[in-house]
Amino acid sequence: MGFEPDYNKQCLEKLIWAMQKLEIDCDETELPKIAELIVQTMTGPWRYFHTPNHIFEVGGEEDPIEVLAALFHDVVYVQVDQSVNFNLTYYIAPFIRQVGEHLLIRDAEDLPPDQSFEMVRQIFDFAPSQTLSPMSGQNEFLSGLVATKVLEPLLPLELLVQVVACIEATIPFRPKTELGSNSDVLYQRLKDVCKTFNLKLTDEDLIETVKRSVRLSNRDVGSFAHESAARFLDNTWNLLPETNHYLKNSSSYTINQYRTALQKMEGFMNFIKPEIIFHQFQGYPDELSYNALVARARKNIEVGRLYLASKLFTIAFLEALSLRFGRVIPVSTLMGEMPTEGFSAVSLVDFLPPNVNPHPPKTELEQQVLTLLEEGRTQSSSYDIKNSPLATYMVKCLGFDEIIHQRNRAQEFFQNKITHEEFLAGCDDHVKKAVTDGIVQLFDSRKAALCQSL
Predict the structure, then answer these.
(1) Domain of life, per the record (predicted)?
(2) Same domain, 164 and 293
């Protein structure tokens, strides 16, 4: 058995440290309850990336406000958990109602008079009766509200404002507007909140608060700028099962389901621009550091796009083949079971012929992606092996130019503009025969195993 980390203990230590740094004298019985609340939420069944390890990393180890904000910034994640954790509804329900599948801020006449809620609402610039959007701050707003209501008995409003400002800054991927960057807008809102609530915070305090929020939010998306593209892809693969819950069982998810998950991630990779990932405010971080973050993110996104395109063509090819004999075919049926402890699985790639004249990579990017496909990311996922032997085979047989061409053709297949047979007809005959023969041999090996005692 592997070592199970004691997340409650780690979280409690973070809370105690932060309170000591802030010189907050609090009841020792309260902090363990808060730690338990946070950890219980962050270890839900669908949490693969947004876990206790993530919040500990995002908080850093130097600033108590950042540590507190990080502990709470992902406690609400409706798309991942499929709901708000029941234990958090105590703090949210007085201010939020549900209509169908949507969460709304209660109408003004139904909201209780509550100073701290008003503070959170104004920092996020949300309004009574507003429908919350998962893509526009819903989770961060509700997480900030939970943080405020949980910490309200312990911290003055001046400190709560700073915690909530850091959480607001973790709303990701927002472009500049006519009002300036997200950090500029947050700074202005904080000035307004200080006036509204007559807070004892100086302009220097507010500037430092926004810089603090920049540090926290940049750590939150720090994997985009990881020096290792393999580590960046590790995090990408941990995100997939959070919103594609069928991936939890590696033996039963279908080819179509896996393809759909990859498609969604590729769509995100094609949408995201490195310039909107990281924050900067009043020269912090400095231009050199900021530009380095953006440059590394751009490189990792390029790797991710080509990597996903290669895997998408490969799974499209398998999906088209599978439609010759069924519509709901698990990946494991054509590829073989994932190897697990005590079970050595036979795989499709065991039956593929050698590549006698492989296409060499033409660019540094192609070489990097081929290496990632062949050798793998740095860690296997519970639902997927870390390397991609069939995609590697395809790339070596066809070259990346043809892979991209076929990925674009696959889009027509996905959209039912061409049939699976029309898609296959436009694919390389040698690859079709090699993979088809390999699948037949995999099935024959199963037949032999099944019949061995007869």
Answers:
(1) Bacteria
(2) no
- Say yes or no to pLDDT of 305 above 60: yes
Residues 357 and 420 placed together within one structural domain of the fold = yes
Q: What range defines the domain where residue 130 resides?
A: 7-220
Q: What band does 161 get if pLDDT is binned at 50, 70 and 90?
A: very high
Contact 67, 23 (CB under 8 A): no
Distance CA 301, CA 272 (A): 8
- Across the strands, what pairs with 96? 105
377 and 423 fall within a common domain: yes
Pair (121, 151) in one structural domain: yes
Structural domain total, the chain:
2
Which of 220, 247, 279 is the C-terminal boundary of a domain? 220
Is pLDDT above 70 for 303? Answer: yes
Angle between helices 287-322 and 400-414 (to 10 degrees): 60
User: What pLDDT does residue 1 have?
Assistant: 36
Confidence of residue 43 (pLDDT cuts 50, 70, 90): very high
What are the tokens at 416?
Answer: 């039912």
Question: Which helix H or strand E contains 208, and what residues bound it?
Answer: helix 203-220
Q: Give the model's pLDDT for residue 160.
A: 98
User: In this predicted model, which residue has the larger pLDDT, 92 or 245?
Assistant: 92
Tokens representing residue 33 in the block: 């309850």
Lookup: tokens for 293: 């973050």
39 with 89, same domain: the answer is: yes
Of the candidates 75, 97, 104, the one whose C-alpha atom is nearest the C-alpha of residue 88 is 75
**Number of Cβ atoms within 10 Å of the Cβ of 162:** 25
Query: Is pTM, for the whole model, over 0.90?
Result: yes
pLDDT band at 236 (very low <50, low <70, confident <90, very high): confident
The amino acid occupying position 104 is L
Closest C-alpha among 416, 320, 304 to residue 368? 304
Looking at residue 141, its amino acid is: F
Q: What local confidence, expressed as pLDDT, does residue 347 receive?
A: 87
pLDDT given at position 383: 67
Query: CB–CB of 73/170 below 8 Å?
Result: yes
Question: Above pLDDT 70, what percent of the chain?
Answer: 96
- Mark whether 111 and 256 lie in a shared domain: no
Nearest to 211 by CA among 231, 236, 190: 190
141 and 126 in contact (C-beta within 8 Å)? yes
**According to the model, what pLDDT value does residue 353 have?**
93
Task: Give the burial class of 341: count Cβ atoms within 10 A of its Cβ; 0-12 exposed, 13-18 middle, 19 or more buried.
Answer: exposed
Dihedral, CA of residue 417, residue 420, residue 425 and residue 427, to nearest 10: 100
State both tokens at 356: 């006698």
Q: 229-243 vs 364-375: helix axis angle to the nearest 10?
A: 60
